[in-house]
Design goal:
alpha+beta, five-stranded mixed barrel, disordered C terminus
């Protein structure tokens, strides 16, 4: 009887641990947002601007793919682009930087910026 009780406690705790892991994995998936805004980059830094603020871009393989697509449209280093992305927004752990970062998951649309009020450094 005692072995049975220990087995049940162990089984329930393993089952509970598995359930909490699946919840955290699904909450990461649901944190993706479709974002439209303006994108500008340099060799090592990229920035994304929406109506509600400016975000740093995590420079991973997806960001480099977006930069390559943008360069195909316009190789001007001061050009900006209208983009639609599927991304997650994260707090930036660095204090002297943009307060939030985006991590690009999917690139939906990239086109030259149509706005006169863009992030361009040189107009």
């Amino acid at each position: 009887m005692k072995k049975y009780l220990v087995f049940m406690i162990l089984f329930v705790s393993v089952l509970a641990g598995c359930q909490s892991d699946s919840k955290s994995a699904s909450s990461n998936e649901t944190s993706l947002q479709t974002l439209s805004g303006e994108f500008i980059y340099t060799d090592s830094v990229a920035v994304f601007k929406k109506k509600d603020g400016i975000y740093g871009v995590i420079m991973d393989a997806k960001a480099k793919t977006l930069i390559a697509q943008a360069k195909e449209l316009n190789s001007d280093p001061f050009a900006s682009f209208d983009v639609t992305l599927q991304a997650s927004v994260q707090d930036n752990p660095e204090k002297d930087a943009w307060p939030e970062l985006i991590k690009i998951k999917n690139i939906i649309k990239v086109q030259p910026s149509s706005s006169d009020d863009s992030l361009r450094l040189n107009k």
